[in-house]
Structures are given as C-alpha cells and as structure tokens.
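Data availability excerpt. The first of two example chains:
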Amino acid sequence: MPLRVQLVIRLCALLTLGVAGQLPAQRTFRTIRSDFTSGFGDIWYIWSAPFHADSRDWLGAALSAGAVVATAPFDDDIDQWIVDQPNSAILQGLEPVRERKSGIKLYDLGSAKLIHPIVGVMYAAGFAADSRKIRDAAIGCMAAQQANGLVRQVIYKTVTRPRPFLDNADPYDIKIERGEWPERSFFGGHAANIVACTSFFNERFDLGVAEPLLYTFAVAASVGRMADRRHWASDTVLGIIFGHAIGHNIGRRSRERAEARGSRSARREGKDAQADFVATNEPPQGFFLSPSAQGGVQVGWRRAF
C-alpha cells in the first residue's frame, strides 16, 4: 500500500476515533462499517461493469472509444500548436491550473496525493458532525478516485506511451511493457481523477449553478495537463470520459441509497404517527367521563384483558 494512502488512513482513524469517545458506540463503528461497505461496493460495481453491462452501456463504450480514436490522429498537431503558441489566449487562460513552481497548485486537485487528504478530513468532519451528506461526499469521491486509479496503475505497469515533453516523442509509439513515469502518458490520470469526483458530486447532490462551474474547472484542469505537455489530446479525452462514467455511476448509486433511506424513514414516521393516533384515540382505561360522538357525555368503566 502506498505510503500516502497509509498516512491518510491513519489521519482518518485519529480524527474519527478522537471524537468516538463522545459518541454512542452504535453510531461510531456501525456508521464507519456502513459507509466503507458502500464505498467498496461502489468500487466493485465499477470493476465488474463488463459483466453486468447492457446494450446501452456497450453502445456508450463504443462511442467513447470512437471519440478517442477520432482524436488520436491530431495528437501531434495539437501538441505542436501548444509548443508554437505559448502566449495564446487559450494557454494564458489555463495558467491558474497549470504546473507552477510557487503559489497555489490547483492542478494537484486532480492528483491522489491531494484528493486523499481532502476526503479524509472531509469524512472525519462529517463523522464528527453526524452529517450523512458530508460522509457520502467523502466516501463517493474516494471510491470514484480509487475505482479509476487502480485501473490506471495496472495500465501504467503494462502499457507505455511517451509523454509529449520527451525529445522526438511519438504519440503512436505504444508498447506492451512496463515503463517509468516519462513513458506513462496513456491515459490522463489528473483528468480522470478530477472529473470522476466532479461527476460524482453533481450526480449525487443538487448543486445548482455550481454544477457547470465545477465541470468547467475540471475540464480546464484536464486540458492544462496537455498545455504542460504531460499528456496527448487523446489521453485527456479518454481520461475525461472514463472519469465521468465512473463518477456518474457511483453518484447514482449513492443518490439511490439516500433516496431509499429517506423512503424507509418516511415509512417509519408514518407508522409512528399512526401508532400515536391509535393510542390517543383509544377509549380510556378504567372509569371514564368523555364527550360522546352523538352529543352529551359518556360515563363508564373499561379494562382490556
């Protein structure tokens, strides 16, 4: 397990267990188990997608592959334009999400090394505040990142494609072998990560005007990796599509779970209200003096056996 993942797990454990002593044991451990069971279930759902996909899913996959293949012939031309037009309005507009030596490094929002600590602290905050929505947001984003990140790690260890910044890099020099970081262009990891979490948030929650803003930022950060010559255009297109599909599906599953919980809660409240009504309207026990439905009063004695 990577060191950063271990550190995040330990941080979450310290933060959550730090408030556990002030909470009922039932909420403490049952809540964590339920949340992480849902998260792992979402990851498995994504990994097992080929086995439960329907015709519509396969059509979407085919169209996505077609978009990547259609972009690939222009990889070299797009990269050359980036090299020749460093001061263009497009590249200048992407400056805030590009790599920089100092200042806020927004491009790292697409990196697991920043996503993990953020969602770890978010989960701990949601746990301490007993906020299901905040916990869902943290677990869902982490699940979306891990579902795509582990797949990419397998690809990085088996497929090489030179990154554009290498001298004489050929975007079509793809080999089945293990390569180092400069040869892991395929496919866009930052794009997949940030779009996966963005897609999850927008599917799980009603974010209103924030939704297009989040997508705009996610796509800009993805294209910024092309501007920094870390990925070819087809790498980025695939990363965006892959991340969106994963985040959308995990967000849908999380939303459906929330709706199911709401339905169960409404049914319980309905039963409780009905029980209260029955208890309130039951004839009194023992001697009673009460209004009569026909007018006047009722006097009597009652006992249930």
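And the second chain:
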Amino acid sequence: MKMQTLFDLSGKTAIVTGCNTGLGQGMAVALADAGADIVGVNRSDASATRAGVEATGRRYVDVAADLASTRDIPGIVAAALAAFGRIDILVNNAGIIRRADALDFTESDWDDVVNVNLRTAFFLAQAVARQFVAQGGGGKIVNIASMLSFQGGIRVPSYTASKSGVLGLTRLLACEWAKRGINVNAIAPGYMETSNTVALRADANRNRAILERIPADRWGTPADLAGAVVFLASAASDYVHGHTLAVDGGWLAR
C-alpha cells in the first residue's frame, strides 16, 4: 500500500465527542482533512467546527448530547448511521476537570468527572464497537488520555483517576477486540493551550514552571494532535493495539 493511501480516510465516518472547541475541534478538522466525514457530539454550539470541516470539502453532522450520562449513546450511534450509513472511527475526546485539594474534594466533583471521562467513554466505545462488529471490517477507537494517566498531579483527584482509567481501559479493550479488527489506542496530550489550562497559563509562576519542564519550550496546540489522531484512525496503525501515544513536547522524557 502506498504511503499516502495508508493515511487516507476517504469514505470513512468519524464520531468525535467534545469537538466544539480546542483539541476536539482540531482533531475533527484533521480527520476531515484526511478525508473523513464527521459526526460531532457536543453540548455547546459547534458552528466553528462545522465551518472547519466543511472547508475541507467533507460533511459535518452535529449531535447534541450530554455525556454526563449514558442515556444519549443510542441516539449518537443512530444519528451517525442515519447520516452516513456506517461508523469507522470513534474519538472519545469529551472530558471535564474539577480542581480542589484532595482533603476537600466532594463526591459530586468526583462523580461528575468520572462519569464523563471514564464511564460514558467506555459505554460509547462499547456501542460503537458493537456497530463495528455488526457491519464488519473492524474500526478504530481513539481515547484521549492525559499526562496524568502516567503521573499523579495535584488538586485533580477525579481527573487523575479517570485518565489513569482511560489508559487501562484502552489496553483492556485492545486485548479483547484486536482479534475483531478493532484498534483501540489513546493519545495523551501534554500541556495544551485550551480552555482547561487558562488558569495555569495566566499564573505567571505556574506557567514558567511548566515551560521549564517541557523540552520543546512551548505549550502544545490543537494542531499538534493532527498527525497523531490521523495515524491512529487510519490503516497506518493497523498493527498498533493498546498503545497510549504521548504528544507532550517531551514532558515525560524529563
């Protein structure tokens, strides 16, 4: 297979959760630029993502859903099938974070984060994998992990727990589904310029400390995930299973 064909997603349908802004938006547009039609799953307006996808010549369908629970999952799958007839790729990107000292952390902040970042991510992957099996031909699932899948962090106990769980779940699903032609892998973004890091970047001391630790000497951007997500969603990664790819400017190498 020629190299350009390995990364070609023409004719594929990708579901991307939480793609109205930031990393999700960047990945949705990257997948579209590689040829995929996009089903965006969002709580908020995603018109900018639609514009970015359609600028590549691909189609975009937005599905309004609240991923704090699993109740909208059947509708997400049904909407994708109604629009494009099949599903080939799932990017489990939607996630939230709550910050507080572990001594003061509430059950609500624990449950809210774990429900979105881990529970719903699993059940959406399950629903999409069932569709992969039903339609034949396998498929690609890309979960979004974190540096805190590898490290402890501070003041984000439920986020660390959920993202550590995403790394483990990625391995488990790969072990079960690889023989079905389903690739399950993950991307672990480093410190990125997104809405989740506004407070960190605004704190001069924390910003300086973070940059001093990153060999690349800069915060990442959504565009930095483009190559990684297209690779893991394409035939180029057909023999990659259960791997979590760090896109972190060298953070974990320090």
